[in-house]
Structure formats: C-alpha cells, structure tokens
C-alpha cells in the first residue's frame, strides 16, 4: 500500500535559521504530493503541492520538489519565523479511486526568537 | 469561494452518552467528504469517506457511524461514547481528481469524561 514517512520531531530552530523537513513516500503509479500545516487548535491548511516529477511547489517562502528518483518531497524554507511554529504534514494522493490521501505522522516545528 | 464549517468547536461528554458532530460545505457541488480523527500528538486516521449522498465507507471498525443526508452535509455519530473516542475530529472535502487537495474544517475537540 501507499505510505509516507516524515522525520520525527520536534524540530527546534532559532529565528532566521534554514529549515528542512524530510519526507519520503511509497506509492504505486504517479501520486500527487502535498504539504499541509496545522497551527495549534486548528485544522490542516494546504501549504503547497506538486503533481508530477520535478515539479516544485512553493508558498509563503516554503518550497518542496517532487523527486521521483528518490521518492522524496522534502520541505525547505530559507529563513524561518516564530509564526512558522506549527505541525507540518506530508501527504500523497494516488490516482484512481475516491481520492484517498495518505498522511505522514506530522513534524512539529518550534521556532524560538 | 468554498467554505467548510464544523461544529461544535469543543465538546465534553460523559462515557456512554451519544454524539453528533456536523460538517457542512458551501460553494461546491458533489464533493467527496471525509471524517478524520487525530489523537494527541499523532497523525490523522481516516474514519469515513463519502462520494455521494447516502454513500458511506468506513476505514476502521469502531463504535462511530457517519451519514450524509444532503450533498454537502456530513454527520459523525455515536450511540455510546467510549473513553477512547477522545480526540480532535476533522472534516474535509475535495473535488476533482487525485491531484486536487483536501480542504479541512477547524475541527472539534472531543473530551470524554
């Protein structure tokens, strides 16, 4: 079956540090890949997505590139802010069926001033 | 634009009491609808999904049930709550193919006493 593996958290960074959250996946076919962000007490919000190999998704300074050769979709940001503190979920959606999404377990990011 | 509403935001219920959580979507037609549960500090567990009125599929055996009485209304129910039903419940919708994301409500925090 499909699966998503994310790096364990929590990740603690100082403001303006560089962020990388690793994500690798296992899927049949050509899935679409997503990063979602969850702020405390809220639902998940779509952060960015990529739908085919070598696509780069970007939003709010975050980027992730769909690497089919390494089955990865690592999230990066050049300079994090305190307001980026949240839980980040990597997810995939495989073609066919009812659009079932497989989520990773989430990585908590804490940015300190 | 599309919006999703979940209520109540928080709920405290005694063991053995019934449950009804409601989710409605506006601004789209014939969405796929989903109920997830998120245990504290954990990832998302898909409970139910629906591709149309009256069509419900269950992902995990449990004492919860779901119904879709109208196109954009999704209800999560239980006749008798267990302590293990505590958690953060999220409703989501999606349309189109697998390269489209799911969109989440703000969630319901359910505590069982």
N/C terminus separation of chain B: 39 Å
Number of strands of chain B: 11
Spatial shape of chain A: globular
> What portion of residues of chain B is helical?
under 10%
* Rg of chain B (CA only): 13 Å
Total helix count of chain B? 0
Q: Report mean pLDDT of chain B, rounded to a whole number.
A: 92
Listing every helix as H and every strand as E from the N terminus to the C terminus, the arrangement of chain B reads: EEEEEEEEEEE
What is the helix content of chain A? Answer: under 10%
SS field, number of helical segments of chain A: 0
N-C termini distance of chain A: 41 Å
Largest interface: A-B, 26 and 25 residues
Proportion of residues in extended strands of chain B: over 45%
Describe the structure.
Chain A has 113 residues and is mostly beta strands. Helix content of chain A is 0%, strand content 50%. In chain A, the strands form 3 sheets. In chain A, strands 2, 5, 6, 10, 11 and 12 form a 6-stranded mixed beta sheet that branches. Chain A has a 4-stranded antiparallel beta sheet with strand order 3-9-8-7, with no helix packed on it. In chain A, strand 7 and strand 8 (62-65) form a beta hairpin. By secondary structure, chain B is an all-beta fold. In chain B, strand 7 and strand 8 form a beta hairpin. The radius of gyration of chain B is 13 Å and the shape is globular. The mean pLDDT of chain B is 92. The chains are: A mainly beta (113), B mainly beta (113). Chains A and B meet through strand 5 and strand 6 of A and strand 5, strand 9 and strand 10 of B.
